[in-house]
Amino acid sequence: MTATAMRGPYLLALDQGTTSTRAIIFDRAARLVGSAQRELQQFYPHDGMVEHDPEHIWADTVAVIRKAIQRAGLEAADITAIGITNQRETTLVWDRRTGEPVHKAIVWQDRRTAAFCRQLQRSGLEPLVQERTGLLIDPYFCATKLVWILDHVEGTRARAERGELAFGTVDSFLLWRFTSGRVHKTDATNASRTMLFDIERQCWDDDLLEAFNIPPSLLPEVVDCAGEFGLTQRELFGSAIAIAGVAGDQQAATFGQACFEPGMLKSTYGTGCFALLNTGDKAVRSTNRLLTTVAYRLDGRPTFAIEGSIFVAGAALQWLRDELRMIWTAAESEAIAGSLPDSGGVYMVPAFTGLGAPYWDPDARGAIFGLTRDTNGRHLVRAALDAVAYQTADLTAAFAEDLRHAGLERQRADAPLVIRVDGGMVANNRLCQSLADYCACTIERPAVTETTALGAAFLAGLATGVYETKADIAAIWQRGAQFNPELDTDLRVAHLKGWHDAVSRVRSNSAEGL
Ligand SMILES: Nc1ncnc2c1ncn2[C@@H]1O[C@H](COP(=O)(O)OP(=O)(O)O)[C@@H](O)[C@H]1O
Ligand SMILES: O=P(O)(O)OC[C@H](O)CO
Fold this sequence. Notes:
Layout: E1 10-16, E2 20-27, E3 32-39, E4 51-52, H1 54-71, E5 79-86, E6 92-95, E7 105-106, H2 114-122, H3 126-133, H4 142-152, H5 156-161, E8 165-168, H6 170-178, E9 185-187, H7 188-191, E10 197-198, E11 203-204, H8 206-212, E12 221-223, H9 234-237, E13 243-248, H10 249-256, E14 265-269, E15 273-280, E16 291-298, E17 301-310, H11 314-322, H12 333-338, E18 347-349, E19 367-369, H13 377-405, E20 418-422, H14 429-439, E21 442-446, H15 451-463, H16 470-476, E22 479-483, H17 489-506
Binding site for sn-glycerol 3-phosphate: 18, 88-89, 140, 249
GO biological process, one term: glycerol catabolic process
Protein name: Glycerol kinase
């Protein structure tokens, strides 16, 4: 269907992700009307360091929005509102007067503060961090990255103390630029990833700010995910557009998947994998080292989630493609892996940047086990896909236990756990089947798999009356495909055991195990 055959209102989602920046325009029924995308340059200045250029992020943002509007055959005035969604935890500091960043953005994957985090753990700060923020001490989150900038970029601490600088995640930086410095805000989901935000009281935490020695004047105001975030400067797109929604990308995907009820679970498979389980108005504390986070906040009321974050999912296939040159495209992994009954006893633990949930081991490194004389490239491809499924199975086991502890078991104990999946990898049917097999649950793939962008559009639509309630949005969500477990239970148990043996051998303290 062409844009002209469709009718407004139109919502524009800006999805600023780790590897690319996308603008997607949806109509009210979540049909895609126009889109544009730009790859984002990655900087690896040193082992374990990952940076982005904030000026690239800004230039790409403006360019993809203009292009998407043009491709949709629309004008800025036709867009009801913009929803912003972004790679989370990536940390920026800029000058309040000029808007100029003082350093490149330090990306969520960056491990430069690993030693500092170990020192903080030894100092006994972790229980306070867990209680207030729902997080664990890890280089992943903003706080230690921000401290690094204040301590390593000459003059920044003094300038911060004089109130001259602003800190924010990518959403805040974009809001600042869109509004020419008039708005310094973030939403509660992005704030909940900083390690400085009290998720129960929904405010910045003075004790943590003091412990990290962070001047409060740096911080943005924290607001709901749907509301008034200001207008884009008129010169940018021809006329001003209202910004009416903001959420971190994994939370936006949760919203785009219409996971509005406690017990609903989504898992997104891109560079990494991030699974969020809605726990309603209760901030459930994990007994399995999962994170407690804000899923979304509307009308001042937070809805919480527990989250399992896996750092490497699709990135393992990129590695097979770019470094080992075993495949030409990630997509061909489906046929290659599907040509084998299993990985032939080969296990790949893709801990390239350490292990995330539930292990949280920044010093673990990747390994391949079980090689024999007849192992070939196809086994490695299968092992890479299976590793994504095994890691998800670790998360679902942890989710199930946490729910039991919290007395939040699914409404019907005999109903299979359902995971709504999305992200670039889930085009792969072999992966979806392995997810169903190893997690022993039903996998639902929506008709629209751009759920991150869709979630941001939904939030902007809620704020502007395009949708009246979340129920309107839930009615739009449609299943595209379903996968059910087919693997024999004994094989499932044996393969998971093989995986856990492999994981225990890459742990930096291998005695710890799971
Ligand atoms: N058909 C496929 N099978 C397996 N992996 C895929 C497939 N298509 C894309 N990928 C992987 O998905 C990732 C891209 O997904 P995307 O959601 O765009 O990621 P991100 O938002 O993290 O940049 C890449 O790592 C790529 O290797
Ligand atoms: O940009 P993505 O899709 O790789 O997501 C990154 C996450 O938000 C990191 O927490």
